[in-house]
Amino acid sequence: MNIIGIIASQRKEGNTAFIVNEILEGAKEQGAEVKAFSFNDLDIKPCRGCWACHKSDKGCVIKDDMQQIYDALEHADAIVLGLPIYMGQMSAQGKIITDRLFARFSPRFSPFFKENAVKQKLILSFNQGNPDADLFKVYTDYTKNMFEVLEFDVTEVPIVTDLRSEPACEREDLRTSLMDFGSALVSVK
Ligand SMILES: Cc1cc2nc3c(=O)[nH]c(=O)nc-3n(C[C@H](O)[C@H](O)[C@H](O)COP(=O)(O)O)c2cc1C
């Protein structure tokens, strides 16, 4: 099984990076091949709204590092998308990547939309400073639905909370539960 992680945060050693990497580690222990992409390492521009991706089979015409993610997506069985909550929504980095997934509706990715195509599994992983896991429930439910429209099989929406005072990497309770999400991803049918 081939799994990619996307860290939609500018902080290379931040909470989102820790969370995505721990989930991937759990999957790797179960034999999955994993690769993480950090937004901070990549030059990814916002969608131009040109619709060129819909007009040919070449996909998105912006030749930047999003092309690496498109290539990886084509070969991935599952994706772990790590989204920090900034101002009550996914980070701007997460939104830039999400908008670029508009190209997923294009002929280049059309096999995903054929009847009986196996959907890619997606763990939509949010993290936030606030301790209340239900605080942004309307938003996280809405976002889950949006990714289902993009033909992902959203298997889990873990919400890591209460990260104001202590970084995720110092939370003893987190490591095991994050790794369990990764290992479950490999065993989910
Ligand atoms: C600009 C900004 C806005 C934030 N807005 C919220 C928020 O609305 N609600 C919340 O619970 N936490 C908020 N936080 C806290 C982050 O969600 C939290 O620290 C997260 O784990 C950061 O992930 P990172 O280390 O990968 O950047 C915000 C942090 C920043 C920097």
UniProtKB/TrEMBL annotation:
Domain of life: Bacteria
Gene3D superfamilies documented for this protein: 3.40.50.360
Entries under InterPro entries matching the protein: Flavoprotein-like_sf, FMN_Rdtase-like_dom, ISF_SsuE-like
PANTHER family (alphabetical): IRON-SULFUR FLAVOPROTEIN, NAD(P)H-DEPENDENT FMN-CONTAINING OXIDOREDUCTASE YWQN-RELATED
Keyword line: Flavoprotein, FMN
Residues covered by the NADPH-dependent FMN reductase-like domain: 1-108
Protein's organism: Clostridium boliviensis
Protein name as it appears in the record: Flavodoxin family protein
